[in-house]
Design a protein that fits this description.
By secondary structure, this protein is of the alpha/beta class. It has helices at residues 45-52, 75-78, 96-106, 113-122, 138-149, 168-183, 195-201, and strands spanning 5-16, 19-30, 34-38, 60-65, 68-69, 81-84, 156-160, 187-192, 204-206. The strands form 2 sheets. A 5-stranded parallel β-sheet has the order 6-7-8-3-9, with helices on both faces. Helix 3 packs across helix 4 and helix 3 (96-106) packs parallel to helix 5 (138-149). The two termini are 28 Å apart.
Length: 207
């Protein structure tokens, strides 16, 4: 029986001037797989995530998501994707709850109140719902970013070093959340430079 791949990365490269940030990468990811991209800073992990999410156009190669070519203009696929970037995408002047309301409205989600309540409970942020994002700890901000990425119930979640700079206790909380996402059957691509993180979470790891 032929394997059906949800994500196919075919001979993808990205050049900035004469520098190859991503050099001829090919990768296939099955539906429901939790894949880790493991490598040091500067290895091209973030650049590849930006290409996968349509933020950057590859210099060469093509990416298919569920059989469709991924590009900046493919809104149908973008609706099925959640992204946790390496750097914060929160509005720090808004509360935790307001950040999620804003995200829900961007996706035109109706009756979002109960969904947000559920996400805040899952992320252990219910007691902090009315705190401004700027007043949350680093670990709490990361968990709020994950909640924001899940607001549209995506099939695919890209996480770019979601635990970098987080203490061990905070990292463990995020690992538990990612394990639960894995159990929900979501297809997840995680970039990290922590070997133990990749080993604990991922079905497969690419170096």
């Amino acid at each position: 029986m032929d394997v059906i791949y949800l994500i196919e990365i075919n001979d993808v490269s990205k050049l900035f001037g004469g520098f190859a940030a991503v050099d001829d990468v090919s990768l296939k990811i099955e539906d429901g797989e939790f894949l880790g991209l493991l490598g040091p800073n500067g290895a091209g992990k973030t650049t590849l995530i930006k290409i996968l999410t349509g933020l950057l156009k590859p210099t060469a190669g093509v990416i298919y998501i569920d059989g469709q070519v991924m590009s900046r203009d493919n809104m149908e696929i973008k609706k099925r994707i959640g992204v946790v970037p390496q750097y914060t995408n929160l509005d720090k002047e808004l509360t935790a709850y307001e950040n999620l309301v804003f995200a829900a409205k961007l996706f035109k989600i109706k009756n979002y109140e109960s969904l947000i309540d559920e996400l805040l409970i899952t992320m252990e942020l219910e007691e902090h719902r009315n705190k401004k994002a700027m007043n949350l700890s680093g670990g709490m901000q990361r968990r709020l970013m994950i909640a924001k990425a899940l607001i549209n119930d995506p099939d695919i979640v890209f996480l770019d070093e979601p635990t970098v700079g987080i203490d061990l206790n905070g990292r463990r909380k995020i690992w538990d959340i990612l394990k639960a996402m894995k159990a929900m059957g979501k297809t997840i691509l995680l970039t990290t430079h922590y070997i133990e993180e990749a080993d604990y979470l991922c079905n497969q790891v690419c170096l």
